[in-house]
Hints:
The complex is a heterotrimer of chains A (219), B (240) and C (218). With 219 residues, chain A is mainly α. Chain A has one domain (2-218). Chain A is 82% helix and 0% strand. Chain A has helices spanning 2-19, 21-41, 52-73, 78-85, 91-120, 125-152, 162-187, 192-218. In chain A, helix 1 (2-19) crosses helix 5, helix 3 (52-73) runs antiparallel to helix 5 (91-120) and helix 6 runs parallel beside helix 8. Chain B has 240 residues and is mainly alpha-helical. Chain B has a domain at 42-206. Chain B has helices at 2-28, 45-68, 75-107, 115-136, 140-168, 188-237. Chain B is globular, with a radius of gyration of 21 Å. Chain B starts with a helix and ends with a helix. Chain C has one domain (8-217): Rossmann fold (3-Layer(aba) Sandwich). Chain C is α/β, with parallel strands linked by helices. Chains in contact: A-B, A-C, B-C. Chain A binds chain C through residues 4, 7, 11, 14-15, 18-19, 74, 77-80, 82-83, 85-89, 214, 218, and chain C through 51, 54-56, 76-78, 80-81, 83-85, 87-96, 100, 104-105, 107-109, 132, 145, 148, 152, 154.
Amino acid sequence: MIRVALLVAGKDLRIERRSRVLLWQVLPFGVTALVLCGLALGPTHAGHSSAAPGLFYLVMLLVALLMINRAQVIESSPGTRASIATLGLDPAGVFLGKALALAVELWLTGLVVLAGSVLFLHTALSGTLEAVPSVAVTLAALAAAGTLYGALSGGGQGPATLLPILSLPAFAPLLIAGERSFSSSLHGGSLWRWWLISLVALAAYLAIGILLYGVLEES
Amino acid sequence: MIKTLSQRLLGPVTLVLLALTFWLGLWVTPPDKVQGNLARLLYVHPAIAWVALYVSFGTAAIASALYLWKRTRSVVMDRVAHCAMEVSTVFIILTLITGSIWGRPTWGVWWAWDARLTSTAILGLFELAYLALRRANDDPELRARRSAVFAIIAAVNVPIIHFSVDWWNTLHQGATVFTENGNLLVHGIMLWTLFLSLFAFTLLFFWLLRARYRVEVLRAQRYDVALDEALAQRRREGVH
Amino acid sequence: MDETPPVVILRDAVVLINGFPLLSGIDLDLDAGSLVVVTGANGAGKTSLLRLLGGLVTLSSGAGVVSGIDLKHGDLRELRRRVGWLGHEGSFYDDLTARENLTFAAKALGRPTDEIGRVLERVGLSARTSTVAKQLSAGQRRRLGLAWLLLRRPETWLLDEPYASLDDQGRTFFDDLIAEVVRGGATVVVSAHDPLRSTALSPRTLTLAGGHVVGDVS
């Protein structure tokens, strides 16, 4: 399972490095969305809002939707699916590999958007750096959940509108945990509850993916 | 014969018990000393919420799990899961509506970001997503598998959502029936009417589930007829 | 007398997608080590039959056994490991080079990667190892798919319209390769609009129409 996971993750990241979709499309989208958040807050509040952590995660949710769809589209051509199916890869390994690749991409994007939140939304640098571990765990949980929902929504062959409906309700607790822990890092407060939510969600999605991804692949 | 008799009696008994609940709740029981007549929602809102969050959603989740387990996998389980989830969606919407009706005079707004309301709303969104997923897949087996996996994920998410939202905010009134020590807060005829409402709405769920299941069976029969015609048509393509 | 059971047994096999019968009741026996050509007009069910044999679509009704695996109740993942698929669409990742695609397949199969150079040379792509798959011509992509199969060496080869987009040289190359694979004991099923050119191959020819077999010539 681990061997297959590393193989699949390496393949996805190599494809990403060559296609540069993350660099030229997703990162600019993330920064643009963050700037739009500032505009939406208005000139008085744009640089002074306590909503900054929530806006960071809202932008990351939108980025995640793009990346999840992208991860599934890579596999979605009928010929590719058929050929890969004949390799008989362990579905649990495939799930872990795709989740790992997606997590790496979200971490890279998250770092850029965090830098953007310091620049545009004036979040304190020290608090933002302190939030990095909780951001990493929350984005990892988002990646695991997103990989599952990507497969549920038809693996790139289903309608693109289905993925948001399926995944956004599930992302709600991650949004809450992420926003609360980021806020606590900025303004002080207890972090353990929010770490617990993110870690439990990560463990739950990893377990469900390992157990049930094969059922979705058979579909 | 007993099964047929109980199926026939389910509807009339449900209607009688619901009528009794409404009569007791609206006319016989006294108003609450603090909330007045607004407290009569006690005989509707908790029962609807109980059915939505535990009975119907629980039925859908269990049926989905049984569908995924090879030993118990059958089209019956898929149909039960689908029908229960549909009924659950209706009950969740009613929970939110009755909750808003209660909340308006209490909190001054139709919607407040209270933990229980919010987590109920999120669960409602999960259920709408389940129905959207079913509509997006025409192939019966594909639809059944994906829906079952999604229902399991939703069930696993219930405690995660509950605790995350609960820790995030709490405005909802506290325990309605029991204190933390297990002492009763509601007494006399109000308590009995509350229990009656729980029972009556639970029966209502099973009645609606049965009716909805029968529609699914008829739909499947119509699908089979259409399939036979499609097969015959397809074979005729090769004749000339 | 050869008592080896057929590698493929289908009885009234029906395959439905979104309620439409792609295959409307196929009865078929195929012996191991045979070469079969499946012909028919567009929409006759050729690709669907091949996908059924590869465990790439599920049997909706009827019965079927391929390579000893029941199509209704057996382990389709195991069946897919035993077959090789060459579709008329792309069979690999467009953004990986020819070598990277084959390296991925080799590692997935636990095969040594030093075979890749030999395989690419065999299919005439040694000058294209570092070319990204989406930049290969249609014929070259077909050869890359063949390289994928040569690396895998499956028991059963399922080739879906392999001659499309090939020039004369390419078609001859495919004929020779198919003959070599059949001589090696594999079962080869080819879907094609045109019959195989080499009469020396003597394939069995199935004609499909309306999702079922309307002609069977050995």
